[in-house]
């Protein structure tokens, strides 16, 4: 068996920026001022062009231990040699202040000696314009300013400035601090401020976890996934990105290297369901605000994805960078924004349904509800007989996908409820007509020879997205039809106890080489739906074994060796974990004092 490939990275963030920190102490990925801005540190895909921000020992032999402070997004990295040890605490400050959340464009790195006299070297070499621009440096008495970015980047530290400027070795005799700021600099006292911000951030995250609703089983995994999911939300607009990274390959040499730092409409339903399942209302409310800024009026289509501020043009281009482990091309932007994906309208209707049925939203603005509902139903009516690129965004294959019709059916059901709540029977009748049309299309996807629903009309290929037919109760959970459908999917797409391929047929880039983690969690959830709860738990426990050393999940897993691939971490995978755990816990439904 080949050596398992893993992303040895921890993630910190504060809902304003995200950073990925390697076991070697280097900031491998950090974009500012937005998740979809150019990286400031990006050696993950940029190699030497990506800059560096590391705190390494002078000894070539050292051991690394990396973990989170429990129930937080604050990361600790312990570096040990035969002679000494030190600890780095990496923190993206976030806490409540003056009746709002304080989430500055600020990275705090605290370095403290644990034993011996650590000898280390700091390298701080940020870059601009995706590694194409070297930044000019200017030293101050206790800081370094970096010029060449839209706003000033500054590193404030109590390490001797010459040691940092020259990346020369020094002995760590006491706790040192480095605070990097983008835009507004740190003007307060360094040591006290850094300690205060770290302490308040730890308290914020631990209190946030205390308010998280989770079942008896898989608490540790749900907590980590919830924390990861939370910092994928860009709080300024409420948008939630698929992943903080770009161009990490779905499998080595596949050229399936995509930029995932955008907000996919197709994820809306699952993401909001996850936040609802863990009892976090604020994140749901912020995401609804993001959705209200998406252009849904008139005859224009709703795109499959938008950027963090709801803009629609996300032009894809290739960059002159070496790529992750040499995988090219390196793409920024994503042409999927031009695709036709007609499931988005149903996703939006399901997403806004709680505004009308969940009593917690009593004070939400619901004016122009009838106009909005009519607009989206018109779009379903206009596209219901149309072939599209589907959930998996096929670039050269249009079909009438079962998944699309499922969300047209489910979204129309939601529209019936919304029409009833706003007292518009005509829109209710229109929605009922559309859900019948969608169901008729779904039945055309049924393959009698397989006793299962196929990927699309006119084919017999199995597709993991049709697991949703069970999960959303289109196929009743207790029916023989559900059991048969699940069996056909298992026969074609399952590997081991839980890993699942999206599909097995060749697409625009050949046959898929890796399984897709969200599909694995869908499978565990579908098993729970049909009453195969023990198997659901077995599948779930296998799947969570593919997380990295700090519990983060990738997009894809190679079934032959368990390697992690695809963009990382993947919000969609963590959403899948939260929702599957919720479904399994509900099925078990027994007092926590029982074994």
From TrEMBL:
<dbReference type="Pfam" id="PF19291">
    <property type="entry name" value="TREH_N"/>
</dbReference>
<dbReference type="Pfam" id="PF00723">
    <property type="entry name" value="Glyco_hydro_15"/>
</dbReference>
<dbReference type="GO" id="GO:0005975">
    <property type="term" value="P:carbohydrate metabolic process"/>
</dbReference>
<protein>
    <submittedName>
        <fullName>Glycoside hydrolase family 15 protein</fullName>
    </submittedName>
</protein>
<feature type="domain" description="GH15-like">
    <location>
        <begin position="218"/>
        <end position="582"/>
    </location>
</feature>
<dbReference type="InterPro" id="IPR011613">
    <property type="entry name" value="GH15-like"/>
</dbReference>
<dbReference type="InterPro" id="IPR008928">
    <property type="entry name" value="6-hairpin_glycosidase_sf"/>
</dbReference>
<keyword id="KW-0378">Hydrolase</keyword>
<dbReference type="GO" id="GO:0004553">
    <property type="term" value="F:hydrolase activity, hydrolyzing O-glycosyl compounds"/>
</dbReference>
<feature type="domain" description="Trehalase-like N-terminal">
    <location>
        <begin position="9"/>
        <end position="152"/>
    </location>
</feature>
<dbReference type="InterPro" id="IPR012341">
    <property type="entry name" value="6hp_glycosidase-like_sf"/>
</dbReference>
<dbReference type="InterPro" id="IPR045582">
    <property type="entry name" value="Trehalase-like_N"/>
</dbReference>
